[in-house]
Give the backbone structure.
Amino acid sequence: MCELCTELDKKIAHYTQLPGGIADQRALNAITNFPADLQAKKRELHPESMGNAR
C-alpha cells in the first residue's frame, strides 16, 4: 500500500470513530460521509488492487 493510502486509512479510522459525540446533524452527516469519500479516493489511486472491495 502506498504512503498516501496509509494516511487515508488513518483518516478513515479517525472519522469513523467520531460520530458518537456529535450532536449537530449537518456535522454528523459530513463526518459520516467523509470515510466513504476517502475510500473512493483510494479506489481512484489503486483501481487494480481495490476491485469492488470497501
User: Anything to note?
Assistant: Helices lie at 3-17, 25-45, 47-50. The two ends are 15 Å apart (CA to CA). The chain has one domain: 3-45. The chain has a mean pLDDT of 83.
